Amino acid sequence: MDEALNKDKDQSEQLDEETLFIVSQTFKALGDPTRIRILHLLSHQECSVNEIAENLSLMQSTVSHQLRFLKNLRLVKYRREGTTLYYSPDDDHVMNVLQQTIHHAQHH
Hints:
CATH class: Mainly Alpha
Shape: globular
InterPro entries: ArsR-like_HTH, HTH_ArsR_DNA-bd_dom, Metal_resp_trans_reg, WH-like_DNA-bd_sf, WH_DNA-bd_sf
Order of helices and strands: HHHEHHEEH
GO molecular function: DNA binding; DNA-binding transcription factor activity
CATH superfamily: Winged helix-like DNA-binding domain superfamily/Winged helix DNA-binding domain
Distance between the termini: 45 Å
Oligomer: single chain
Keywords: DNA-binding, Transcription, Transcription regulation
CATH topology: Arc Repressor Mutant, subunit A
Largest sheet: 3 strands, antiparallel
CATH architecture: Orthogonal Bundle
Strand content: 5-15%
Strand order of the largest sheet: 1-3-2
Pfam family, one: HTH_5
Organism: Metabacillus litoralis
Number of domains: 1
Radius of gyration: 18 Å
């Protein structure tokens, strides 16, 4: 029985290529100051591209590019209202990691 448990444990510790890729891309997303600022803002309020650009003093094209990257990783989602898209966080796990890391940085 112990042998079977150890075998299951060994297999569960192996990360498949897709998981490794998603994890590395997620950390890449969180490694960029602009994306951190966008995610932090969205963790407090839903925003359109224009609102994000205004709040963070960024070019609209920069915000759109970063949101596309974040959307592809399913870190943000959007809803459409007329012709405007409103963005919000799409993953509580990653947002929790971000908030905990910000808290860590502010209190070390």
